[in-house]
Amino acid sequence: MTEFYRESVEKVMKALDGTPQGLTDYEVRRRQKKYGLNELQEEKRKTAGEVFLDQFKDFLVIILMIAAVISAFLGEVESSFVIIVVVMLNSILGTVQHIKAEKSLNSLKAMAAPVAKVLRDGQVIEIPSKEIVVGDILLVDAGDFISADGRIMESHSLLINESSLTGESIAIEKTANSIYREDVALGDKKNMVFAGSFVTNGRGKVIVTSTGMETEIGKIAHLLNTAKEKRTPLQVSLDDFGKRLAIGIIILCFIIFALDILRGRELVNSFMFAVSLAVAAIPEALSSIVTIVLAFGTQKMAKENAIVRKLHAVESLGSISVICSDKTGTLTQNKMAVQKVFINGKVSTHDQMQIGGLEKKFLQMALLCNDSVIIDGKEIGDPTELALVKFAKPYNVHELNMRAQFERVGEVPFDSERKLMSTLNRMDNRTIMITKGAVDVLLPQIAKVETAQGIVPISKNQIASIHQINEQFSREGLRVLALSYKEVDASKITKKDEKDLIFLGLVAMMDPPREESKQAVADCIKAGIKPVMITGDHKITATAIAKEIGILKDPSEAIEGKDIENLTDKELRDLVENISVYARVSPEHKIRIVKAWQDKGNVVAMTGDGVNDGPALKQADIGVAMGITGTEVAKDASSMVLTDDNFSTIVKSVSNGRSIYTNIKNAIQFLLSGNMGAILVVLYATLLALPAPFAPVHLLFINLLTDSLPAIAIGLEPHNKNVMNEKPRNIKEPLLNRKFAKYVGLEGLLIAAVTIIAFQVGLSSNDPMVASTMAFATLCLARLFHGFNCRSKQSIFKIGVFTNLASWIAFLIGVILLNAVLIFGLFESAVLTTFQLLLVYGLAFVPFIIIQVERLFFSKNK
């Protein structure tokens, strides 16, 4: 038996071999031995050492390490040391990032209650929660965390907050009655309790049905263990690019090495030449530069309420094509607010109610039959009652004033069985009983109705009208309460007095959308991103909110979790593009929805705040947790945390992510085009049997010193507001596509051409070191000037010469370092004449002029 909610308490107890007096010590030990302890299990994680070694599996890193070993073997210790330092720094950074991300199950374990009260051998005892077994009788009171799943045996005004599991912020009224429906959602199993939730009111007795990994929270732990984090599009592109580049470099180096040997060059010199080419071709600092640019991007986003936990997730934001968002607190305010009222036979919106005698009376009584208060901006009490308090304030009706003026002398508190609350107040020398509650419960107790013309017996037409308005409000996703009263001659009241009431009106409320949600959804759609609502709330409420903010266009685009249960994965994939709202979903449903979108080639962002969201947050390409209402489980499973719990912040983050990716791609273009120039010069010298144009230390100087800073500066290019007018980029398109390769090739050819001219001029002096120095200086300077070209596809004069101060700082540092080398003859360099130096500067400036003129007058990007 697994559907315990459908069975009577007696049948459940029989199925679990339980007794009303609880289990014996012998039976407890037997069950613990058979089923294990009531705790969550974790799959074996990689050690820090294993994670660190994994960082060296990258193909480009392997090639770099081989180059470092060869350099050391040939006596180039300087070159070898620099390469190893760069690789080690990247590996340490990657290890730290990975370890930080593996905390989600620890947080899940922390949610378990440390102790629990159980009935054993007829005695109530307190035990560690891990010792609970199936069949135990659990006693729960207000303030207790639930330690295991169970079927309620007794409920005394029991309210349980299951928000971490279902996403619903309002506490659930629990009952001991059986539920005979099939396919009941978790949030609707009102005769069950679940581990990880907590009691907000009342007390109850529960027979334990599941412990440990068999509980609902245990299933989530299993999903967290098995959910695979997706590699970001940039990681995939860089890995693919790295492999292609490495294979190309190996082939090229081997050919050049073979040509040198055939020409009779010494073995050691041939090796050095091949290594210098490998060093020239591999952008050693690429990983470091990408990491630094992403880190700067995360700082900017943190100032805009988005804390990025995993660096590479920043650029994934720019690829997002689907955002699956929770409703409560993300798209909505997570606060109940009055939307409409029905008084004196007419419907008014919350801000357009005309205050007359009847309306004022309604507000006064709504605050008197109410226990919530707002003191110094602090809200204390039930969300529904707080909504009434806030609703009355603009009409100058204040709860504390009302309660001081009209003393409460008696009450019948709300309970989940009768769904009513009544208070007894002294009002104008009369004793008035005020009753509020569910419309279907209160309406049969109504005998009269108060209108502007006075109090009259309620007619069938008026009852029908109230039912119609109630149904209309409910269809709009509103929660409806009825308010009534009557005069009494007693000094106290009981449940039996809740009859022969005078109807005053209806009040309808909901958790309203955030003001900025509608615009954020519109921005998503404009940017080619599909917004989807996935919530544990009811379908009617979810569709009402989704329609208001623009996510839902047609009611047919909304389904419930029970509908997903009957679909195969293929059927869900076929359906997913046509669905915008998913209601009453479970954690398994959320993962299936995310996977269905991913299987169709989409990059998916998933938002959430509860424990139930953890697995889907981990499965998504970008998991976005709520910083204010989010559980630690959700935060640890996510890639990004919103400090303001606001959907619009995600949209701003997508915009930032797109700009950052563009900047990274421009930085990579800068590095590759410069390296291409160096490769072409080395090939030129090899094919013409000329001396080596560069010493390996020259190429390392360029790659690690004068190239790194300009590349970082390009990565810090100011945000481009036009990126949200474009569609998400195709993640299947490789980084080094045909168009990108064309730019790299042509720009590299220009840089190579001026470097070869400088090299040939240097050779005419009959001093190979002068030729090498002129080639090195020209290549270095040309790449520094080229940094300005790579800031954008547009001309620098179009985007603003001085809009990126970092690019100027990087350029000046590079120039200063290069001139220091040339003046003091460092790094195997000769001291150049004034003419040679001026020629170097003039030649280096030529590629910049050609590219800028082309962009200003001939390019489509202008």
What is the gist of this entry?
The protein has 862 residues and is of the alpha+beta class.
Task: Describe the structure in your own words.
- With 862 residues, the protein is of the alpha+beta class.
- The protein is built from 32 helices and 26 strands.
- Strands 10, 11, 14, 15, 16, 17, 18, 19 and 20 form a 9-stranded mixed beta sheet that branches. Strands 8-26-25-24-9-21-23-22 form an 8-stranded mixed beta sheet, sandwiched between helices.
- Helix 9 runs antiparallel to helix 10 and helix 13 (357-368) packs antiparallel against helix 14.
What are the defining features of this structure?
862 residues, alpha+beta, 9-stranded mixed β-sheet, 17% strand
Summarize the helices and strands and which ones pair or pack.
Blueprint: H1 9-15, H2 25-35, H3 48-54, H4 59-73, H5 77-101, H6 104-110, E1 115-120, E2 123-128, E3 137-141, E4 149-161, H7 163-166, E5 172-173, E6 192-193, E7 198-210, H8 216-226, H9 233-262, H10 267-281, H11 286-303, E8 306-308, H12 313-317, E9 322-325, E10 337-343, E11 346-349, H13 357-368, E12 373-375, E13 378-380, H14 383-392, H15 399-405, E14 408-412, E15 420-427, E16 430-437, H16 439-442, E17 446-451, E18 454-457, H17 460-475, E19 479-487, E20 501-510, H18 517-526, E21 530-534, H19 539-549, E22 558-560, H20 561-565, H21 569-576, E23 581-583, H22 587-599, E24 604-608, H23 614-619, E25 622-626, H24 632-637, E26 640-642, H25 647-687, H26 696-706, H27 708-715, H28 738-763, H29 768-789, H30 796-799, H31 805-824, H32 834-857
Parallel strand pairs: 9-21, 9-24, 17-20, 21-23, 22-23, 24-25, 25-26
Antiparallel strand pairs: 1-2, 1-3, 3-7, 4-5, 4-6, 4-7, 8-26, 10-11, 10-20, 12-13, 14-15, 15-16, 16-19, 17-18, 19-20
Helix pairs in contact: 3-5, 4-5, 4-10, 9-10, 10-26, 11-25, 11-27, 13-14, 18-25, 21-22, 25-27, 25-28, 25-29, 26-29, 27-31, 28-29, 28-32, 29-31, 29-32
